[in-house]
Amino acid sequence: MKLPFPAFGRSFSDRRNWPAAVDLAIFAVVIASFYGFVQLAHYWWGAAVPSVNISHSAWALPGYAFYSVVRLFSAYVLSLIFAVGYGYAAAYSPRIERVLLAILDILQSIPVLSFLPGVMLAMISLFPSRQLGVELGSILLIFTGQVWNMAFSFYSSLKAIPPELREASSVYGFSRWQRFRQLELPYGVIGLIWNSMVSVAGGWFFLMACEMFVLGKRDFRLPGLGSYLQTAASDGDIPAMIRGLAAMIAVIVLTDFLLWRPLVAWSEKFKFEQVESGAVNESAVLNMLRRSRFIGMLGEKLRPVAESLERRLIRKSQPVVTAKQGSRAVGAILMAALLAATVYGLFRATSLVSDVTGAQWLSTLHDALITFLRVNAALAIACLWTIPAGVAIASNRRLAKIAQPLAQIAASVPATALFPIILLALIQAGGGLGIASILLMLLGTQWYILFNVIAGALAIPSELKEVGRVFRFGRVSRWRVVILPGIFPYLVTGLVTASGGAWNASIVAEYFHLNGRIYMTSGLGARISSASDAGQFDVLLLSTIVMAGMVVCVNRLVWRPLYRLAETRYRMDG
Fold this sequence. Notes:
- This protein is globular.
- It starts with 19 loop residues before the first helix and ends in a 6-residue tail after the last helix.
- With 574 residues, the chain is mainly α.
- The chain has helices spanning 20-44, 61-92, 97-109, 112-126, 131-159, 163-171, 176-205, 207-211, 225-235, 238-267, 284-291, 293-316, 328-353, 358-395, 397-412, 415-428, 433-459, 462-470, 475-509, 524-534, 537-568; strands spanning 212-215, 218-221, 511-514, 517-520.
- The longest helix is centred in the middle third of the chain and has 38 residues, at 358-395.
- The protein has one domain (12-24, 61-270, 355-568): Orthogonal Bundle (MetI-like fold), CATH 1.10.3720.10.
- Strands 1-2 form a two-stranded antiparallel sheet. A two-stranded antiparallel ribbon has the order 3-4.
- A hairpin with a 2-residue loop joins strand 1 (212-215) and strand 2 (218-221).
């Protein structure tokens, strides 16, 4: 690992021969983006129009795509900030670490539709006469489908930092800010970037549910690709569905080219290794930004401000004494607030579910067992192909150039948009929603495992691979000694988040609107979706509690011991 962060750009003299047209193009993009956000702010601050007429015209697609992208990446920015802060607090606060992890387990197991009533009612209450309330509600719903795997990834990265690097930061008297900027954040960059890809893909997956939904007697519809695809699917308009999917794929391809490929190439700087890797990922966009005179001049103007802010942060942050040092006062306040919120929540939950009958309890537990079996079937099928495929993509540069972008595109295309075609095909073949639901869970969650395996394989130090070649390890020995131990911490993170994602995906996998009909099968996801549609908040709360309880039990009995094993036995120590 090369510390501290290397400079993003090059010196001004290296940019003299760069074409001026490229700088003009970058400047035009900046101006167009600024204009778009001004118009967006005007729309959000306007009068509330929670239910708009969604046009099936192809001319409406560019505007819908813009709205959806803004919602997705606004939610992503919130997710990134939350993930880094929450992961840091969980890794360095021994007194509340277990509590924070338990909360994270519970939150990632709660489906998006279970957040929907509280989030939307709260946002509409805050901004009753503005469109901003409904838009913020939609962004926060997308946030709940993106954030958890990123938080788990950053937490596991911090726990896996080799002790000698921590000791070096203490010996050199790093402040907390210096340690975070020069050690902890660089060490977690690779995992964060790959989990960011799958988080944004998860946002696309739930976009249809977050832009168009029913809450009691109110029908919310926001302009966007998700609502476009859902109305097209509900009306059986196949040409409109194809146009919507084409627009979504175009946005995904552009996002991959303009954002994810440059970030993957940039993250090569932060591999933990003593031997320089022979082949590295490259990005034409990253090279263009590094050589752009406009970006260089902008960086020169902003550098004094950044250096001044850096000095202030270093002065205000405390020197690192031990990794477990923390504020007892802050911990006590957090625990008191958590206890008060828990007591209040239990009181309200008990009063709400008090009218639920014993038969409804037994039926809910039966449905939970069925969904549990579907979730584990989807995870088993996903592992069979994602582990070898992820290692192959990370190990073979030629394969990576082809498979990596295709995987990102496939992961980002929401399975819910393809599900009508899959469901109709299975029904005609004599199958049903029971089988189709497993396929939809698989399509929505296998990417959590694949992208974490790729990140883990990329993070394996080059010297370990060289040792395998020197000692002429066979295929089995190479997997047993080098590959599986190297990817193990990332694989556990992928399995944890894929499990939570599969439970979340059950709400659309087991209950689906198509051509004016509702297709449903037995399962906890179908119970949650039907309760949300009917406004049965007692059944919705009961089903959510059961789902969260099952996910937390599995995490405690299976995934948490595997996390401890990854922290102790499979950490990259020097």
